[in-house]
Specification:
heterodimer; A: mainly alpha; MetI-like fold; elongated; B: mainly alpha; 12 helices
């Protein structure tokens, strides 16, 4: 199942990357004579009300969501690992300060924090800037959960044999942290990364649905979902539902990549 | 226990104060904060312009603003909304019943489904496999999409919240129940021929109580996040919708009031759930 999920994600990422070459149109190219066209040979998913090819927009949206969510996740895990590891390893006032900030971040609904921070930043920015702002915010605000897990994992390793031996052999605390402890926490970091990616894809989708995510004309899987409101009046249900199906498939595939224990609990 | 309670109360107050301060600071440093669209109105008299500037001046020193604000908040005054020009406390109070009803119904539905199905999946493992696939699929759907589907089908908004919260709660509950059912003491009880209902109640559900209580506290956070989306997309005039409007309008008093209010709600629920869990654990261990 894991291999199938990984294969599916790789195929989606490749299709998203090759979208420009696979389809004859760009995501922002307008076919003014063919607005709201139904799926056909020229436009596999039809066109939207501005005459833009839905398939091209879907692949461009997938490219934004599927490539930038992992980037945001790397940022969040890097922050979480730096704070969690140093808090768990050095302890004392630094541990208390980091734990307080983690508690603060976790005690307030993260979505409220996200919309507040996103709303105070300029909304009237270029599409590329809106993408960067959205995913940077997700990375910068989404580290608390992983920091808590990494801090806990670090504390459980403190009294393990290899750490005690390294310290007894005269290794400095920084060297033990970077050379011995960090590689042993790699599986935890990897799991946290896999947990964060689907979460960020979903957060971006939710932000875009409220108009706080990726700006037009650049699409993302989330911003394309808004068109579902036309479902009752449009005969092109395939073109309208495709972003939701692709989003659910990508996030579902990420969920299946989780180790069984994390997935169940 | 008294020390734990005292420490939790103090931590909650500090967390709450820091949350409000962070929100106020964020708004103060946001680009365009010093600009007021009313100043651009050529019809406004010099006196009005002066008044607008005086209003702004009171908010420019963030420490002074927050200190004044906290003193007022302790007396129940959360300030005046700049967008709606009415007291913030009144605005929140007006919309609170809608949100509380939504969150209450959503959480009740989500927890009922989650606990019942988690238990069913422990009793009938074949059902569990199907439910795991179902929840994996549901976890892949953003809450905003659930809200859109509820809007399109004109279904009850609380059902949308329950559906958005259910999969994660189910995963936690199922993990806990399965862990208890597989534990040595539970297997020993089962081999001695304990009746199924008693086995489930005493060895599967009861030991999971403290952990489930802790998750209940956290699920209130998730419910509020979901309420923002559902209320906005389904146009329900609740506190969640107000939070988004406050953020978009950069209404500082309203936003700080909202953050403090939501923070107080979630922090106190978390603290209550955590303390209840600790109380149960202590009672069980006889300390």
């Amino acid at each position: 199942m894991k291999r199938l999920a990984a294969g599916l994600l790789i195929a989606l990422a490749l299709a998203a990357l090759a979208g420009e070459f696979l389809l004859p149109a760009r995501y922002d190219q307008q076919f003014r004579e063919e607005t709201d066209a139904l799926p056909g040979a020229k436009h596999p998913l039809g066109t939207d009300e501005l005459g833009r090819d839905r398939a091209a927009r879907l692949l461009a949206g997938a490219r934004v969501s599927l490539l930038l969510a992992p980037a945001a996740s790397v940022l969040a895990i890097a922050l979480g690992a730096t704070l969690g590891l140093t808090a768990g390893w050095f302890g004392g006032w630094w541990d208390r300060a980091v734990s307080t900030v983690i508690d603060l971040m976790i005690s307030v609904p993260i979505f409220l924090v996200l919309i507040t921070v996103r709303a105070v930043l300029p909304l009237n920015v270029s599409p590329v800037s809106s993408v960067m702002i959205t995913f940077l915010l997700l990375g910068l605000l989404g580290w608390a959960g992983s920091a808590r897990v990494i801090r806990g994992a670090c504390q459980t390793q403190l009294n393990s044999d290899y750490v005690l031996r390294a310290l007894a052999a005269g290794c400095s605390r920084t060297r033990v942290l970077l050379v011995h402890l960090l590689p042993n926490l790699w599986p935890v970091l990897r799991t946290q990364f896999i947990v964060a990616v689907p979460g960020f894809i979903l957060d971006e989708a939710n932000l875009s649905l409220l108009g706080l995510g990726v700006a037009e004309p650049l699409p993302s899987l989330g911003s394309l979902l808004k068109e579902l409101t036309n479902l009752p009046t449009s005969p092109n249900w395939l073109g309208l539902a495709a972003p939701a199906v692709l989003l659910a498939t990508a996030v579902g595939a990420c969920e299946f990549l989780l180790p069984p224990k994390e997935g169940a609990s | 226990m008294r020390n734990v309670l005292l420490r939790r109360i103090i931590t909650s107050f500090i967390t709450l104060a820091l949350t409000g301060f962070a929100a106020a600071t964020l708004l103060r440093v946001a680009p365009g904060f010093d600009v007021d669209a009313r100043e651009l109105d050529s019809r406004a008299s010099a006196e009005t312009q002066q008044q607008i500037r005086a209003e702004r001046a009171g908010e420019s020193d963030i420490l002074a603003f927050y200190g004044r604000y906290l003193r007022g908040a302790l007396q129940g005054d959360l300030g005046q909304s700049r967008t709606y020009e009415v007291p913030v406390a009144g605005l929140i109070g007006e919309r609170l019943p809608v949100t509380l009803r939504l969150i209450g119904l959503g959480l009740t539905g989500a927890w009922t489904f989650a606990l019942a199905l988690a238990l069913a999946s422990v009793v009938w493992p074949a059902v569990g496999t199907g439910l795991n696939l179902l929840t994996a699929g549901m976890l892949a759907i953003p809450a905003g999409l659930v809200a859109l589907l509820i809007l399109l089908s004109q279904g009850p908004v609380a059902l949308g919240l329950a559906l958005a919260l259910f999969p994660r709660l189910f995963s936690y509950a199922r993990g806990l129940f399965q862990q208890n059912a597989d534990a040595g003491f539970a297997l020993a009880a089962r081999t001695r021929g304990l009746a199924s209902a008693r086995f489930l109640g005493r060895y599967v559900i009861w030991p999971a109580g403290p952990s489930l209580l802790a998750i209940l506290g956290l699920s209130v956070n998730g419910a509020f996040g979901g309420a923002i989306l559902l209320e906005t997309i389904c146009d329900l005039p609740g506190v969640g919708q107000l939070a988004l409007q406050a953020a978009l309008a950069r209404d500082l008093p309203l936003l700080v009031g909202m953050t403090l209010f939501v923070g107080a709600l979630t922090v106190s629920t978390n603290a209550l759930a955590e303390l209840s869990a600790q109380f149960i654990l202590r009672t069980r261990s006889g300390h």
